[in-house]
Amino acid sequence: MDKVVATAAEAVADVPDGASLAVGGFGLSGVPNVLIEALYEREVSALSVVSNNCGAMESGLAILLAAGRIARVTGSYIGGNKEFARQYLAGELEVEMIPQGTLAERLRAGGAGIPAFYTPAGVGTQVADGGLPWRYDGEGGVALASPPKEVREFDGTEYVLEHGIRTDFALVRAAKGDRHGNLVFNKSSRNFNPLAAMAGRVTIAEVEELVEPGEIDPDAVHLPGIFVQRLIALTPEQAADKKIEQRTVSS
Questions:
Q1: Which of 19, 39, 1, 9 is nearest to 201 (CA)?
Q2: In this structure, are residues 30 and 53 in contact, taking their beta carbons and an 8 Å threshold?
Q3: CA–CA distance, 93 with 136 (Å, rounded to integer)
Q4: β-strand 94-97 against 210-211: which pairing, if any?
Q5: Contact 83, 104 (CB under 8 A)
Q6: Confidence at residue 245, expressed as pLDDT on a 0 to 100 scale
Q7: Superkingdom of the source (predicted)?
């Protein structure tokens, strides 16, 4: 039952080239930076990543992206990641953009064993009709576009069929975890981390605070340990290393 491994390198040692990864985080919040860095050190490549965004400020998934290690991204936000945008428009990267709520539900559905579901989000747009550029040809043309999806009417409203997402591995970061893999997330880091963890066939968590089983109130658990196969305890320095994307001050 003790799922703790000694190092991040050991935790990701069996992630192969070409693997699919669900990665937690929301902007710079709750990003499993230490596990991502361990993948970078192993020089794993041709990865298919499912994440809300693909890193920012040269941290998180941005380090794998800049090194050319990511082949495909399924996400909902490019934001201020200029390298992400450059690779996409240059035809170096395949990108499937999904409405943010749909992405969250596709991850949750995959983890819950639900193969597909209907949602009104995207009906009447290229999300449902097809034609969204997945890959450009580097000269302004579209080399690969999204296919049309099934649309059905229920009680007078149209809904588009979306498929659940399952990935080979998931990487997440939690504020607290016990040795059985039960996890607690802090504030906005809870947005995508639990869902990414559910979607992975092998889920690896880095935790800022490791406690013994029984120390977390069962009512406080955000993700049960059944969804987690491995976890590492961060050092105090690693736990405190949190970047701020846009710093604002008041006078």
A1: 19
A2: no
A3: 8
A4: unpaired
A5: no
A6: 67
A7: Bacteria
Inform me whether the pLDDT recorded for 213 exceeds 70: yes
Instruction: Classify residue 208 by its DSSP letter.
Output: S
Contact 5, 141 (CB under 8 A): no
Q: What is the pLDDT of residues 97-122, one digit of tens each?
A: 999 999 999 999 999 999 999 999 99
| Domains of the chain, first to last | 8-115+164-240 (3.40.1080.10)
Whole-number Cα distances in Å, 173 to 11, 135, 146, 183, 229? 13, 30, 31, 9, 14
**What is the Cα–Cα distance from 70 to 39, expressed in whole angstroms?**
11
Backbone angle region of 27, left / alpha / beta, with phi > 0 → left and psi within -120 to 50 → alpha: left
Which residue carries 């491995």 as its tokens? 230
Digit-coded pLDDT (tens) for 152-188: 999 999 999 999 999 999 999 999 999 999 999 999 8
DSSP per-residue codes, 123-180: TTSHHHH---EEEE-SSSSEEEEPPP--EEEETTEEEEEEE---EEEEEEEESEEETT
What six digits make up the tokens of 124?
Answer: 């009447």
